[in-house]
Amino acid sequence: NAGVTQTPKFQVLKTGQSMTLQCAQDMNHEYMSWYRQDPGMGLRLIHYSVGAGITDQGEVPNGYNVSRSTTEDFPLRLLSAAPSQTSVYFCASSYSGFSAGYEQYFGPGTRLTVT
Amino acid sequence: AQTVTQSQPEMSVQEAETVTLSCTYDTSENNYYLFWYKQPPSRQMILVIRQEAYKQQNATENRFSVNFQKAAKSFSLKISDSQLGDTAMYFCAFGVQGAQKLVFGQGTRLTINP
Q: pLDDT (tens digit, 9 = 90+) per residue, B62-80?
């Protein structure tokens, strides 16, 4: 199993550009989520999904969009990039979102810089 | 809203020493889970240990153990016989049963010196 994969690993955007961060998992996990990691702030939840066709907002959803058309994929879209979105982005998956006790498996992260 | 606080931004110990990382959380819920995740310089997040709130017995995983004090809302991680490979950021995380979200602390950067 590849686990959770993310592409790209690094990305530089100009303010106002849009892009999609890709996330895929091959573990047949129902639950997938996106976090951003900023110095001194830990990981903050952006959006999450408890299954195909179901998404919901996390703590910091503004400026981001998600969809979940398949169990495997959970792309994160930046609609109009801003310097405040400079961060490291992690995708994670777990067996089920209906129990908080399941381990979350994380992707390797995407370092995004917005100039 | 649930919050998780890690009051030690950085810690440094010598190899083979024991180190304890602190974590406190705030919740009115009774059924929840607590985690410690490790993030080495490779950036990959790895689960270290997990504790169910309904279990009074503290979780252990080889050299890693926790001190779970439910009444005090405290969840510290003890690393015994520390190794150079333990150098990493450590994040405490909290999840309420059914809430579908994990809340992370700010992280503690741990350095193990040779």
A: 999 999 999 999 999 999 9
